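pasting for the record
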Amino acid sequence: IKMPLGDEETCEMHDLMHDLAQMVGDECLLVDSPSEYVNENTRHVGTVNNSQAVLRSASLSNTPWHLRSYVQFRGRGRLPKSDFDGNISSLRRLRVLFLKDKRYESLPESVGELIHLRYLKVCVHAHYLPEGITKLRYLQILDLQGSSNLRELPREFYRLTSLKHLRLGADGPLCDDTSLIDMPPRFGELTSLQSLDRFIVGENTGSDALSGMNLAETL
């Protein structure tokens, strides 16, 4: 340890503390190189730069039952859709998933197999979300900011009975627009919903759908 006056001071760490720090460090991994390896102790993974290629090279699907969160900070280098689908469907114990790649025009139905998800943020070029997403019965936060081309939500969206926070607006304070043309049928049945940043009045849903909801925060 370097001190302010240039002197150096050393300290000794107990072997047990060293082992604990090493174990905790192994649980979190920021992947920035195709040569990175996700070991069996890893619980939380973030990728940057060439993140789609990293998804494949890190062989995330080899340890699907361990990962609890996956965050894609930036995406370069498109991964074939078949590989993308295969990786996502194998991460069955994820609690947190953040996907950011505007080059994807759809999400796989297999997202609905991630039944333990609590937080899902999607920033893609999709016009629709797969119906399979309505199987995520434990989902509490759905953030679709940045998916500005999204036109419709799944018809059985009301099945997300644990949903507490829904963000639909464009990503950024100067972007108030959204491509949504309507809210899904039976939207008012989402009685656990606490915050909503957009509500679109259309053929399926009128503003009266909000009357029976316990929204603490809405625009």
